[in-house]
Amino acid sequence: MGFAFGASRSEKHRDLSPVEVWLKVGKSNLSFYIVNPAPSLPSFTGVVMALGPRIRQARYLRGFNQRELAEEIGVSKTTVSNYEQENSLPDSAKLMEIAEALDIDLSYFLRSPRVGDIEPAYRKFSSMLVKEENAIVERIRDWLERYLEVESILEIDALDFEWPDGVPYEVETMEDVEQAALRLRDVWEIGRDPIENLTERLKDKALRVGCIKAPEDFDACAFEAQVSGEIPVIVYNEKYPGDRQRFSIAHELGHLVLDVEGELKEEKVCDRFSGAFLVPCDVFINDVGERRRNVAQRELELLKQKYGVSMQVLAYRMKDLGIITQSHFRRFFQWFNAAGHKEKEPGEAVSREQPRRFERMVQHARAEELITDRRAAELLDRNTEHLPEPVLA
């Protein structure tokens, strides 16, 4: 069967040009053959994922249940269920309404599938509602699909990644964890200096790292994305301060590179790895000394800026490395909490992580006219008027 996607009269789709789309419906997939594609829609010919799962993913992305979506588009809950199970398909006008109701661009439904099941291990997972979990998974999928699409346009091989020899590192003691952090720094040739932009440094090693809008219960997660193979991915919450973001990213890196043996608790192991990776033991001891009885607040503020971690992490590093005693450690947190610093630490805040590689790739593709301005805006999830003019050499 066939139908035409015409120009929408709605505000959101007012700039769409007519485009003919012929649908070939099979048992488990929906193929779009686009004739005379408008510049406002992705130009491709090929197999696109089943429309039903795409509608469900979009609904999860916006936090709607089936009844809420049904009310928005003027159909029954059963009809929405049938759309998602592909017992029936929405016509072009109804698909436009679904896009409007979910505040999502129509191109979302036409995007080629690149990511299989996503099963991240959340931090603080138990406190989340199922609705929030589903929304986070689909935000991650949406970001990762856009990221991989740009890589494909630029002919970057998504599978061009290998962990260093020995990964995952087997760890049975906390000393093993310290050594694993140093070993990874060494094989990645990071050295011992503080890492200024952790996100960019990990992307230089071909990990995919991104940030999403998420509830406060979500810090970060890591998983192996199924993309005709496996690629490691770390995603973190964009709203948190930079020191918390960096610690969370390094914590999730620990989940990817460590094989925890014996009676060690994996979350504590990854916390230790995060501290050891961001604050290498030898350099830190050189900064603060092997033994300390007292530490000045201003000294902690300066160390916080140097290493990009919180004062609390610095206190843990001092305790873990034997620089301060357990009693000094307890007194630090008694003072810290009594002074009201737990919610907002004193001194200058650590800048948030800035994942710039994705935008650089989009601007590269746009400057080379591999994508239109509208497609660039869709990929970056912003309006076209916020795109800077390309600069020609």
- Widest sheet, order of strands: 1-2-3-4
How far from one another are the termini?
Answer: 48 Å
What is the radius of gyration computed over CA atoms, rounded to a whole number of angstroms? 24 Å
What's the β-strand tally? 9
Structural class: alpha/beta
Topology, element by element:
Blueprint: E1 2-5, E2 19-25, E3 30-35, E4 45-48, H1 51-62, H2 66-73, H3 77-85, H4 92-101, H5 107-110, H6 130-153, E5 169-171, H7 174-187, H8 198-204, E6 208-212, E7 220-226, E8 230-237, H9 242-257, E9 258-260, H10 266-278, H11 281-288, H12 297-307, H13 311-320, H14 326-338, H15 357-367, H16 373-380
Parallel strand pairs: 5-9, 6-8
Antiparallel strand pairs: 1-2, 2-3, 3-4, 7-8
Outline of the structure:
By secondary structure, this protein is an alpha/beta fold. It has helices at residues 51-62, 66-73, 77-85, 92-101, 107-110, 130-153, 174-187, 198-204, 242-257, 266-278, 281-288, 297-307, 311-320, 326-338, 357-367, 373-380, and strands at residues 2-5, 19-25, 30-35, 45-48, 169-171, 208-212, 220-226, 230-237, 258-260.
